[in-house]
Design goal:
Blueprint: E1 4-8, H1 13-24, E2 28-33, E3 48-52, H2 60-66, E4 70-75, H3 90-113, E5 117-126, H4 139-158, E6 165-169, H5 192-206, E7 211-212, H6 216-221, H7 228-239
Parallel strand pairs: 1-2, 1-4, 2-3, 4-5, 5-6, 6-7
Helix pairs in contact: 1-5, 3-4
């Protein structure tokens, strides 16, 4: 019997590659997403199941009727919002927190309440290397990822007496559709670097690693705690043309 993975959003970029690697390792994967985007659902591997699911609007009934029991749960869904902090709409910033962290908290709570995560299971949070790097052009996004990392650490302690383990992955910048939030265009849909990062990420979760730094930039940034004053200046200078202040 295949082990099962549940992932929130996946239809492009790093997480599409991770799902592809998981299938090769004989996992079956349930996808929660609001749209298949560019993916042809008729051509999905038999071990991948797409579930049309709005992560910002669900309840226990939705979970019971749509979801199975999982060995790995990957909290991955995320959106960003970029521009001068003083100009951004507060409701839009609230949506970033809703999607990136608040509704994941609700999802994990219901999954645990309904015993939808196996007792030996793993919960995996997609954080961001921006936790280690000042990100003044996307303050709500950076804040939501900090919040997710803090939630993961607190949940790790809460579940200490169980066999359920918590992992955080901190991917650095890469050429995926996410770059559109920062005034860039994706250069290629067939990115060898992204494929390698995806394989390292999945291997990290399978090996039960606590924190996963799947690329060189994330590894370096994870060790830069004493350099925050310098990084503040570097990141300000990188984006100062976008700021009023």
């Amino acid at each position: 019997m295949n082990k099962k993975i549940l992932i929130t959003w996946w239809m492009s970029g790093l997480w599409l590659e991770i799902v592809n690697h998981a299938v090769l390792k004989w996992y079956s994967i349930d996808i929660l997403d609001i749209s298949p985007w560019k993916v042809n659902l008729k051509k999905l591997d038999k071990n991948i199941k797409y579930i049309n699911f709005d992560i910002t609007n669900f309840n226990k009934k939705n979970i019971k009727s749509n979801l199975s029991t999982y060995d790995i749960v990957i909290c991955n869904a995320g959106i960003s919002l970029s521009w001068d902090f003083l100009d951004l709409d507060s409701d839009s910033e609230r949506k970033v927190f809703d999607v990136n962290i608040l509704w994941h908290i609700k999802l994990i709570k219901i999954l645990l309440q309904e015993w939808k995560i196996n007792s030996w299971g793993r919960i995996w949070f997609t954080v961001s290397a921006s936790e280690f790097l000042p990100f003044p052009i996307a303050i709500a996004y950076a804040g939501s990822k900090w919040a997710m990392a803090s939630f993961a650490k607190a949940l790790r302690s809460y579940l200490y007496n169980t066999k359920i383990k918590i992992s955080c992955i901190y991917p650095g910048p890469m050429d995926t559709p996410h770059v559109k939030y920062y005034w860039k265009k994706q250069k290629s849909d067939n990115n060898t670097k992204v494929k390698k990062i995806a394989l390292r990420s999945l291997d990290g979760i399978i090996k039960w690693k606590r924190n996963i730094y799947p690329d060189t930039i994330s590894k370096i940034l994870s060790k830069t705690g004493l350099l925050w004053p310098i990084l503040d200046r570097i990141m300000y200078n990188a984006y100062k043309e976008k700021f009023k202040i």
